[in-house]
Structure formats: C-alpha cells, structure tokens
Amino acid sequence: MLDVRRMQVLRAVAVSGSVTAAAAHLGCTPSAVSQQVAALEKEAGIELLERAGRGVRPTAAGRLLIGHATIISEQVAVTETALSDLRAGRTGRLTIHYFASVGPTLLAPAIARLRVAHSGVTVDPKLTDPTDSLPAVERGDGDLAIVVRRPDEGDRPGVSLVRLLDDPYRAVLPAGHPLAEREVVDLADLAGEPWVGGEPPGPCLEPVLDACAAAGFTPNFVAKSEDYATAQGFVAAGLGVALVPRLGLGTGHPGVAICRVRRPEPIRTIYAAVREISLAQPALCTLIDALIDAARSEHR
C-alpha cells in the first residue's frame, strides 16, 4: 500500500526541483527526504525520480503519483473544512424523537430557534412511542429524545437527562357533569365514574394509575384512545371522565370542562435525553437550551 505522506514528500521534491530545496521547505534534512522517496519507490516497485542537470524530475510513474497526491491534498482540505463546519454547528443533522403532546408545545418553538442559530443543520423530528425514544438514543439512532420518566428512576449509563418540566394532569369532564363547575376536584370524587383512557400503557399512564391508587381506587376504563384529542371527544360524548396532562389539552374541546386535580395531583415529568458523547455538538446544546426555555414558557 502506498504511503500518502510519502507521496506528499515526492510532490514537494518535484515542485522544488531538488531534494535539498524540498527538505528546506519541509523543515527536515535532505537525508530524511531521500529516505522517504526511496521507501515510496520500494512500495511502488518503480523509480519515481530521475536526475535532471543538478536537480531531479519525476518519471512518468512519479508524475502519476504526484497527480494523485494533489487530488488527495485537495480532498483532505475539503474534508477538514467540512469537519470544522460540523464541529462549529454550521452543518450536520439532528434526529429528534418526541411524543405527540410535546410536538407543538415544546419541540416546535425549540426547532424554530435552532434554525435561526444553526441554519445549515438539518432537523429530523420523529414521532415515536415514548417507550422507544430513550432506547433509540442509547443505540445511537437519535441525537435527542423527549421522554417521560419518574424523577426517582436511576441514571442511564452514557445518557444525560435534562429535566424540562413537570406536567400536571387535569380532569376532563363532560360539560354537563355535576363537578364541571368546580375549579378543583378531589381525585377520589372520580372513583365511581366510568373512565376514558387517553394513552397506551407506559410512562404517561403510570402517573394516573399511581395517583388513583393513592386515592384508594382503580379507574374503570370503559373506552380507550391513544391520543388526547380523541379522548376529549369521547368525554364530550358522555362516555366517561379522563385525566389529561396539561400539555395534551391543546385548544380544548367545546363539549368538556377542565378542572385541576388534588389529593393527589398526578404529574408526569418530562426530560430531554441525549448521549453524553454528543454534548460537545453546538447545535445540540442550542436545541437543549431552546427546549428548556420553551418548557419555562409553558410552566408560566
């Protein structure tokens, strides 16, 4: 295999016209240059330089290698520029895993800010089941995931978790429900009601079940939906009551009433998860900061 560095030495000799001049330009001894050329000739299996007066000039084989050495130098320069742009956050691609209710509330304003600061970075948002988002980041299939986790869950090796906000659940009641006029309801007051589920089993349902257990009952789910908009429609139709996180309420349904919940108040905690090795990327850091600011805006 030909040594690329030796090819660059050969190129320097050809441009300079002599081994001595090339050595001066390269900052080494003529002997070192001659050794590099000799080693390259051994690798190539053919002479690469021939005498020309007091200097040397490349043979046909030498000219061939010098031409390729020039191409390699140009490609290295292009690669170094591309790498510099990537390090500085001027280019690149970020894959983001998120779940539906944080898309318009947290992710959209964060991406808008990222595009202003890093216009050359391509953003690839992927709507993902909350149970799959964190494993995707751990596998390297995503740069960032917005996830729901318990605050007391242990650390994940190699993953940094940034707490964004606590998202409290609200009671969603049919507009004509006896409790619909209240601003706050005790969770136990909903124990005997038929329930509408707004999410599949997983981290977003766990806070609801845990809170109901603390209030002394298990909810009787008579209808289930995997999105909060449909769940509100089911409630408006009189199928039951529901608990929906505040970020999942959207614009609200005209046929429902929204009340705060207490004793206890169910809360899901939302994090941004990134691989620790990726935290040196400027664009990713900008995205995390933007998510934190968007979460603060939602919290107010």
Describe it:
The chain is of the alpha/beta class and 300 residues long. The protein folds into 3 domains: 85 residues, Orthogonal Bundle (Arc Repressor Mutant, subunit A); 104 residues, D-Maltodextrin-Binding Protein, domain 2 (3-Layer(aba) Sandwich), CATH 3.40.190; 102 residues, D-Maltodextrin-Binding Protein, domain 2, CATH 3.40.190. The chain is built from 9 helices and 12 strands. Strands 3, 4, 5, 6, 7, 10, 11 and 12 form an 8-stranded mixed sheet that branches. Helix 1 packs across helix 2 and helix 2 crosses helix 3. The protein starts with a helix and ends with a helix. 36% of the residues are buried.
Q: Strand count, sense and closure of the main sheet?
A: 8 strands, mixed
Question: With helices defined by DSSP (H or I, 4 residues minimum), what is the helix count?
Answer: 9
Unreliable stretches covering 5 or more consecutive residues? none
CATH superfamily of the largest domain: Periplasmic binding protein-like II
Mean pLDDT equals 89
What is the terminal-to-terminal distance?
Answer: 64 Å
What amount of the residues lies in strands? Answer: 25-35%
CATH topology of the largest domain: D-Maltodextrin-Binding Protein, domain 2
The portion of residues assigned to helices is: 40-55%
Order of SSEs, N→C? HHHEEHEHEHEEEEHEHEEEH
The number of distinct structural domains comes to: 3
Q: How many DSSP-defined strands?
A: 12
Tell me the radius of gyration.
32 Å
The best one-word shape is rod-shaped
Oligomeric assembly: single chain
Structural class: alpha/beta
CATH class of the largest domain: Alpha Beta
CATH architecture of the largest domain: 3-Layer(aba) Sandwich
